[in-house]
Amino acid sequence: MKRIFLLKGLDCPNCSAKIEKEVGELDGVQSSVVNLMKQTLTINVAPAAANTIASQIETIVHSHEPGVEVQEETIIPVTKSYLLKGLDCPNCSAKIEKEVGELDGVQSSVVNLMKQTLTINVAPAAANTIASQIETIVHSHEPDVEVSEIAQEYYIPAKKQDTNTSYNNEDKKLTIRLAIGAAIYGIGMALTVFAKVPLPVELVFLIVSYIILGGDVVWQAVRNISKGRVFDEHFLMSVSTIGAFVIGEYPEAVAVMLFYQVGEFFQSLAVERSRKSISDLMDIRPDCATVRRNGELITISPESVAIGEIIIVKPGEKIPLDGVVLDGDSMLDTRALTGESVPRSVHKGDEALSGCMNQTGVLTIKTTKAFGESTASKIIDLVENASSRKAPTENFITTFARYYTPVVVILAAILAILPPILLGGGWTEWIRRGFVFLVVSCPCALVISIPLTFFGGIGAASKRGVLVKGSNYLEALNNVSIIVFDKTGTLTKGVFNVTDILPANGFSKEQVLEYAVQAESFSNHPIAKSILSAYGKEIDQSVISDYKEISGYGISAMAGKKKVYAGNTKLMDSEHVEYTACEKVGTKVYVAVDGQYAGCILITDEVKPDSKKAISDLKHIGVEKTVMLTGDDEKIGKAVAEELQLDEYYAQLFPDQKVEKVELLDSKKRPGSKLAFVGDGINDAPVLARADVGIAMGGLGSDAAIEAADVVLMTDEPSKLVDAIDVAKATKQIVMQNIVIALGIKSVFLILGALGIAGMWEAVFGDVGVTIIAVLNAMRILKK
């Protein structure tokens, strides 16, 4: 029996491993798996032990994690999505995601900053009341964000112009407020310096400007404190600036709030720019489709078009749904899908993919997929949801900030109180140092720039035709030490061609090919198609009878009154045909007529033009081992491996044997490194799922590849893999730079503040200045 238990509150990898092991050792338990991501324990247990297992599991869990709530999953959760219009703060997004996830009945909570959505899995009993709780949490962090439930199963983002308008209005309001506050502050400072106005007049100007600039920050801090959330940036800014007023540093107090708000403004612009960079890629979504119904052309939404309907696409229009061209010739701009600038030609019978721009001719297309299953929809969904899978570094920074802020607040309090008590006197100076310490310590630079960099990295990869399903996979690409390739369709073109015909026993080449064509005429196998293509003539199938496909051997058929066999050496041996084995490299089809060997047809698959350079470049950027797996025979595998200078190859493998080889290679990899598998289709799905990083090659239109892989290369060029790793390394480099910049500069200013060398003006740079530097550095990845 399969049983699933929810371990709500489990967040310790070490305890998870212990629970998984100890539960697995209980009597009757055949398997035990803890999923830390989902906070679940899944077991297979004998029916005899099923009644007592729940209490045993609860005892084991509580022996390691007393605070974890254990409950068996018997109710299917409801999935709900909410639009958080105006959300643009990565730090607040993480807090909202965490707090909503802790609500009763909520099993999972994911905020997608790109789509401005919150998606939850919630128990049906809590589903009706959860909306108000979510709205309360969101408004406690972002009062201006609009919360509304998304009723549609398929979420369609607002059009770009609408999104930009709402952002521009908010930006204008904030700009006006900053300008007014800064102007009043400037007038007050000018009157103080040049007119020598009395202190009460100066204070009027400074207090008014402070209220305009920082009133919302202070109010937010008060609301957070009332809800038990004390240690955040609103609290730090409020305490430090009000404290500066108390000790008489009036201009500095207003300046800190002014520059803090300027920093927040830059953050908003940076997130907006990153989102726009990715949403530009989403421009592949068509707005309408022209359908032929009852002899008339009507324009409707793509969602309303059924499979099998006829659509018309004019020059300059996007192809709205996947389909096959029934009529017309044209050039298609596939840049949004593949990152390639060279247009692709399509003719009658070719596949046309949604999201491509039709450039020249009118195309008549028969749809083969509904809109939700079309290539454009799948790619949009992949890129938009990529930000929900966070990298380990992102998760670490979020956790780090949670503990870092209270620690620095305590240190600031100690700095302000302890020295005057121990040394006697000097309260004003030490309190000033404590407030400087608080301003510098704000962790904004890290919690903003790190998610922003990964966000931008996913967008930069997408521009180059590489779809990464999450920043966790983007970070994993940095640590790939072994790359395993499938051969056919990945390193080779996967297009078989007849390259030689070797006749025997008085048969001509034409006769050998004709008999082979008659035997293969009913087969859909790629090798059969290559033989039919080489023949290039009409086939009279009426003379063919008694057709049989013999799995693993070949084909037998009657061609008129002659018995024809076409297949491998095993077929020849089983039919006792004396033949001459071909020693050339390639796939061989042996042909026999009425028991006499007629000859051999040699079929080969060409290596892709950039495969060799791709392997060389991968080794140059640090990949330690390249391996090829193939189902072809030993000679073909060896020839391709030697041509491409691969480190290892394994031939004559079935799909399950490929998984075994990947597991063997995985066991031998360097500790801490990753193994990536690169494949091209449905046969590779099991191996793609097994590898640390599954990479689908030529995933354009391949449903199986897109579903199974972690990274999808939208063209069939192996060199795209080099691009993917290149972007991943650049992203990681910028992330590490920002961590060093933020912590390095802040450490210096914290020490200078504690020693009394740095004042409030230096503290402003230590906080806002570092944040702006980190954000601008993060934006560089968008240019990659």
Protein model, in words:
With 784 residues, the chain is of the alpha+beta class. It has 26 helices and 30 strands. Strands 18-30-29-28-19-26-27 form a seven-stranded mixed β-sheet, with helices on both faces. The chain has a six-stranded antiparallel β-sheet with strand order 10-9-11-17-12-15, with no helix packed on it. It has a six-stranded antiparallel β-sheet with strand order 20-25-24-23-22-21. A hairpin with a 4-residue loop joins strand 6 and strand 7 (117-122). Helix 12 (392-423) runs antiparallel to helix 13 and helix 25 (719-754) packs antiparallel against helix 26 (760-779). It is elongated and about 115 Å long. The two termini are 51 Å apart.
Strand ordering within the main sheet: 18-30-29-28-19-26-27
How much helicity do the residues have? 40-55%
Q: Can you count the beta strands? A: 30
Q: What is the radius of gyration computed over CA atoms, rounded to a whole number of angstroms?
A: 33 Å
Mean pLDDT across every amino acid position: 83
> Low-confidence segments, ≥5 residues, pLDDT <50?
152-167
Tally of contiguous helical segments: 26
